[in-house]
Amino acid sequence: MVPDVRSGCGVNTDLPDLPGAICATVDPELWFSDRQPGWAETERRAKALCRSCPVVAECLAYALKEPLAGIWGGLNEAERHRLAQTPGTTDRAMRARSVAARMKREVRADRVATAGRLRDGGLEVDVIALRLGVTRRSALRYLADAS
Q1: Confidence (pTM)
Q2: What domains, with CATH codes, occur in the chain?
């Protein structure tokens, strides 16, 4: 289950079960950063977690159907509203997949740049893989793209 402000930041059993959702493993307050001092940094951290979540597209598709507070599918309320109002396709799930794909490309680009900087700093492939939280094989791919 994922946190929902409508249930007092607890778990709302009416919400979809999203196996593998990263949000289920962290403090629910992270997803409602507008309630905290330093909200911009907290929101950035929440969105970064969403970008690496395996069910981000499903989460965003659900959030586009419901008026939900907080970060859902990697977007805040205002961003989801703009996405829902975007001209073009009316298929919200398709838009959610498109946003999720863009987020995954951004994560990859960030990892490629970070891998290149770490290599330029003299770190070995295994250390780079640990720093990025990926396998050695993935680190080698990122390094190849950074060249």
Answers
A1: 0.54
A2: 1-85 (no CATH), 100-147 (1.10.10)
